[in-house]
Design brief:
Blueprint: H1 12-23, E1 28-30, H2 32-40, E2 50-56, H3 57-70, E3 76-79, E4 85-90, E5 97-106, E6 109-115, H4 121-138, H5 141-151, H6 153-164, H7 167-181, E7 187-193, H8 195-198, E8 201-205, E9 208-212, H9 216-224, E10 244-247
Helix pairs in contact: 2-9, 4-7, 5-6
Length: 248
Amino acid sequence: MRQERYGLAGNPLFIETIRVFEDLGLQYWLDQGTLLGLVREGRLLKCDHDIDLGMWEEDYRRMKNKIKRELKPAGAFVETFKPHQLSISALDRKHRMVNIAFYRREEGLARKKVPCASGGKLKALLLKVALLCAHARAGTLKEKMGRKNKSGAAGKLFLKTAQMVPGALWQLAGNLCGRFLYLKKGYVQMAVPEEYFLELEEIRAEGLVLPVPAKPEEYLRLKYGDDWHEQKLDWDFTRDDGAIQNRT
């Protein structure tokens, strides 16, 4: 059976992520728009650019070093510098990125924070540098720069110099750029009853059996409202999500 290019089973980033989590015995579940699409439409939402997962923050912190050591999908940018989630994106952009949000348990609630969108030239520059570092570490810098940029003397010198720098240093430089992006950044605080994530259910999608929150339709109603089964093109998770508690 031919898998959709932007689906689940055909996405090596997603398959590698859940393989590592399961090998390490880590609990995770489908979340946000990914869960909404599979429950409501039986497929990923076409307007979604990523695959959303959730996991307990304490599990991630406890197993962070093992996750970083094991999670190395080919041609991917693994963003371990984010304080609120783990992100894995394809450097060639052929597959949806995978975002794993961290939830912390507190007084019967599962809480998470989501950064508010913010622009600016500094953010754009830091993102470009971090991505450039990821390409250098993966050995795909030539493809990233393109024929025009690498044909000149400066481009050739940069490529030659980049090859002499150890991959670990490129990763360190990329992580430092990423960390600067989240300094003094505003966040939206969200919370749902922890019971949704304590006893998970399962859903079948593209030949895979995947964990989802308990009572998934009730969970989606909390997040997206009573009309969660209707499409909302202007819905904004930092503004309209029913789990929002406050903004900092």
